[in-house]
Amino acid sequence: MQFLNDRVPWNVRALLDSTATPYTVAQYSARAAVYRQGDPCERVMYIESGRVWLAVTTHDGKQAICSLLATGAFMGEEALTGCAERRRSATAMTDTQ
Description:
By secondary structure, this protein is mainly beta. The chain is globular. Helix content is 7%, strand content 27%. The protein is built from one helix and six strands. The strands form two sheets. Strands 1-6-3-4 form a four-stranded antiparallel β-sheet, with no helix packed on it. Strands 2-5 form a two-stranded antiparallel sheet.
């Protein structure tokens, strides 16, 4: 399966280091929750390696996958708009950093 972001990613760490922007690196195993719908929306994330799916859950518990993201993608952009809570859940499909 071909993903939109299956290409050589740019070096986000070098950019953040050059601007003295603080960041952390997290590891997620396959099927681990990165964040859940309704969690506080505090940061934007960049996928250095791996794959993630974004899904929304309805009030009756049904889940729909909205996006499949891979290396080089950003997620959680709603943090930039001042959104208080995550609108979707993010789950690692593979080991992800």
